[in-house]
Amino acid sequence: MLGFEFEVCILPHPDKADRGGEDALFANNKLNALGVADGVGSWYFRGVDPGIYAQELMRLTEVAIQAGQRDPVKALDEAYDVNKEQGTTTACVALLDDAQLNSVNVGDSGFILIREDQVIQSRQITIHGFNFPFQLGQGSPDQPEDGVVDSFELKPEDIIVMATDGLWDNLFEEQVVELVVEKSYMSKLAKNIAEEARFAATEPGRKTPWSDVGGKLDDISIIAARMVSS
Question: Which of 11, 40, 77, 181 has fewest C-beta within 10 Å?
Fold first, then answer.
């Protein structure tokens, strides 16, 4: 059987650091479950902290999995149904059962799978338009089942990099792989990737997935997980 060996990093936007940013994540190697969420920032201008809805959705999703729900769509749906906080968020959840990774991604967070220093599965997203991702919460028609649902057979030493768009808007997937190869030890991998994404976001004129003339300063939340035999 396979399990996760992982490290996580949350690097808030400097202007949001006093509130801990607007992202959330969970990583549980007993449940073999991972999740990230990115609270929609426009709620802040309505007097609502966007991070609270995202944090509660991830907490409730982990609770649903703890209670025995192994379908990521259903776990996310159970959390969505009982989340009473205000806000909206993107969400990505993945569960490992034996060697099969089952996942759902609502919005523009997501993950890549790396095997033998190559991307074998790119991030799959759901968006309504540029900078307008699918999202869960008040006023949004999107539902957990509207996300990208997929399953993958994994092998030992495969690596998952799951993150909010603070990573994916600033580093190309190939650049993430380079960092995994160069800094393959897991103890600081998520932190190293996050710091490189932050550097890209603030380097004037740099070509990024966001634009050809710079990146996007944002919260950056990353889970780097390696598959190990358990």
Answer: 181
